[in-house]
Amino acid sequence: MSKMCVNVAFIIPFRNRSEHLNHWLYYLHPILIRQQLDYGVYVINQEGDGVFNRAKLKNIGFVEALHEYDYECFAFADVDLVPIDDRNLYRCSDHPRHLSVAIDKFNYILSSKTAFGGVSLLSKEQFLKVNGFSNTFWGWGGEDDDLYNRIVLRGMSISRPDSQIAKYTMIKHQRDVHNEVNPKNAVKVQETQNDIDTDGLNSLNYTTNEIQRDVMYTFMTVDVQAPAG
Questions:
Q1: Which residues make Cβ contacts (< 8 Å) with residue 167, sequence separation at least 6?
Q2: Active site residues
């Protein structure tokens, strides 16, 4: 793997997961320090009880983190996934990188060759090239598959570390209220080529309501203009 960046913004989409966040911070900070990263953690909290939009929160995190520092690499991380092995490096490369290859909940088996959810890394250049995530995946499912499609449509391919290294523990939880499976999302994934140029970073619309800066992380509460749950 060549040309690795060590300047990383961690973007965590969030709502009602304080216990998981404390767990993530407790385990991740020591790992990231041992990996000698220059990094910041941005927790993007969706305000209200409307339908959850994980992908839009990640786009917001990307934009807001760049307001604070000229990050070169972005790690989009689910708050319920904790790495087991320090050798699983949180560094961008020449290809968008999928880190959460082997998760205990799935018996450490990759669900498919096109899987790109959980924990993924893209350089600033790569993320801009795909116009970020779609902003229109409301509810659970589809947004990671759409991002994979965007990567392929822009002539890139993904890379992964070895599954013996890229192991994760998933913190057990129930699916959140107002984040139910949305059957429309499976249809939307088939339409990536029609939406990539108009739905993403260039169409992002939100309001930042509060920013709390902690030594360990920055916690941003945002209004994503969600439909009612």
A1: 83, 84, 85, 88, 101, 102, 103, 104, 108
A2: 78, 80, 140, 143-144, 170, 173, 175
At residue 83's C-alpha, the angle toward residues 79 and 84, to 5°, is 145
Q: What is the C-alpha to C-alpha distance for residues 116 and 147, in angstroms, rounded to an integer?
A: 8
Whole-model pTM? Answer: 0.91
- Dmax (CA) for the chain in angstroms is 45
Asked if 143 contacts 133 with a C-beta cutoff of 8 angstroms, the reply is: yes
Q: For residue 160, what are its two tokens?
A: 């992964």
Cα–Cα distance for residue pair 193/18, rounded to 1 Å? 37
Q: Which residue has the tokens 């990094």?
A: 39
Residue 97 gets which letter from DSSP? E
d(CA 32, CA 8): 10
Distance CA 173, CA 157 (A): 32
pLDDT tens, position by position, 138-182: 887 889 999 999 999 999 999 999 999 999 999 876 555 555 666
Q: Which residue intervals of the chain are DSSP H helices?
A: 18-34, 54-68, 124-129, 143-153, 183-188, 192-195
- Give the angle 15-214-118 at the CA atoms, nearest 5°: 40
Q: What is the pLDDT of residues 4-21, one digit of tens each?
A: 547 999 999 999 888 889
Q: Which residues of 184-207 are buried (b: 16+ CB within 10 A; e: fewer)?
A: ebeebbeebeebbeebbbeebebe
